[in-house]
Amino acid sequence: MYPAVNEAVIRSIEEGISGSCSLMVPCPAAGHAMELLRRRPEIPFGVHLTMVCEMPRLRWGPLAARERVSSLLDETGALYPHHRIPELLARARLDEVETEFRAQIDAVLDAGLRPAHLDWHCLADGGRADVFDLTLTLAGEYGLAVRAWLDPARERLRGRGLPVIDHGFLDSFSFDPDGKAERYAELLRTLPAGLSEWAVHPGLDDAEARAVDPDGWRVRSGDHAFLASPQARELLRQEEIVVIDYGMVQRAWAGGLRRQPRGRGPRPPHAGAP
């Protein structure tokens, strides 16, 4: 979205406990993000498929030509904001969703980058069953994993022998910024056995962040402060939590799709992927 987010994401992986990140290709600072990733090919990242622009002070539009994706745009020719997602889902044509999704994935590949997974911005599991199915098809074509958070999508993928999270999905925007570090510490101490995933949103506290993201900068700054802290690393050591990344998940998806097993494999004893 903006450089302070990009910098904090990289620090949270290189210096902290985060495992992977997602790239929003249509956003203003996407070029900066891709350059950071290009210099760090060891960082696993996904394409955060984007059809929503929820920040009125920081606008972005589709990557495809507007006349090719008109059903994804509101009456002003812009991407729908967050509070109008139901309208977007009611009128979005699947062929135009595919056009935009392919444009975003191909832009990443054309930049010389190799993503590990696909997920969706503001649309859990794609928002519609046919969008979810489309994303699975694209993932198979491009050799990527897919992040699925909700049932029945998780059960469907488990039935295909593909790894998905075992527990409820954590979104850091659901927490009050005050006392967040203590809350995170408590959750790590009580993390259940199996595969968990935390969607965290690190960002640096600078003047641009406060100007363009007045409702989000405190969430992002608090996330970064905890993720990159010695306390977080020590908690992982004490609780014997193994942080995995989406490069590993991508490899498991590739093997699972080849084998098409009927059951689930063994779970790591205490794993998480912040």
From TrEMBL:
UniProt entry tagged with the keyword DNA damage: no
Source species, domain of life? Bacteria
Q: Keywords for this entry?
A: Carbohydrate metabolism, Hydrolase, Magnesium, Metal-binding
For activity, the cofactor(s) needed are:
Mg(2+)
A biological process from GO? carbohydrate metabolic process
- Please indicate if the UniProt record lists Ribosomal protein as a keyword: no
- Any Pfam family from its record, for instance, is YdjC
GO molecular function annotations of the record: deacetylase activity; hydrolase activity; metal ion binding
Under which name does UniProt file this protein? ChbG/HpnK family deacetylase
What species does this protein belong to? Nonomuraea cypriaca
